[in-house]
Amino acid sequence: MESKNNNSDIPSATCPFCSKITYNPNDIANQYCANCKCFYGDIIAHANIAKNAGPEAISALRKIVEAAHEHLKNLPTN
Ligand SMILES: [Zn+2]
Q1: How far is the CA of 2 from the centre of ligand 1 (A)?
Q2: 3-state DSSP helix/strand/coil percent for the chain, to nearest 5?
Q3: Residue 51 sits in which domain range?
Q4: Cα 32 to chain center, whole Å?
Q5: What is the tally of structural domains in the chain?
Q6: Is residue 60 part of a domain?
Q7: How far is ligand 1, taken at its centre, from the CA of residue 43, in Å?
Q8: Distance 32 CA to ligand 1 centre (A)
Q9: Quick check: is 1 in a domain?
Q10: Interval between CA 12 and ligand 1 midpoint (Å)
């Protein structure tokens, strides 16, 4: 009755764009996605703009984000 899901006790945040779940306290505090290398708010802001503009803008945004992912993969980490 009192039993809880183990996972429910661990703070987590889910990226609204790539659905990656983070348990990193800093990322949660900053609402930051290490996968997207972007703050959730930034992603949502861009996604909302695209949503209002229609499906073509959404697919264009997806391509931009995917291209950014590829670009970031190629950057040196230090
Ligand atoms: Zn993400």
Answers
A1: 33
A2: 55, 10, 35
A3: 6-73
A4: 7
A5: 1
A6: yes
A7: 8
A8: 8
A9: no
A10: 13
38 within a domain of the structure (yes/no): yes
- For residue 12, the SS3 value is coil
What is the distance in A from the centroid of ligand 1 to the CA of 16?
Answer: 7
DSSP labels for 12-58?
-EE-TTT--EE--HHHHHHTEETTTTEEHHHHHHHHHHHHHH-HHHH
Instruction: Band the pLDDT of 7: cuts 50, 70, 90.
Output: low
Interval 26-38: pLDDT, tens: 999 999 988 878 8
pTM: 0.50
Q: Is residue 78 part of a domain?
A: no
Distance 56 CA to ligand 1 centre (A): 21
pLDDT in tens, 54-66: 888 888 788 877 8
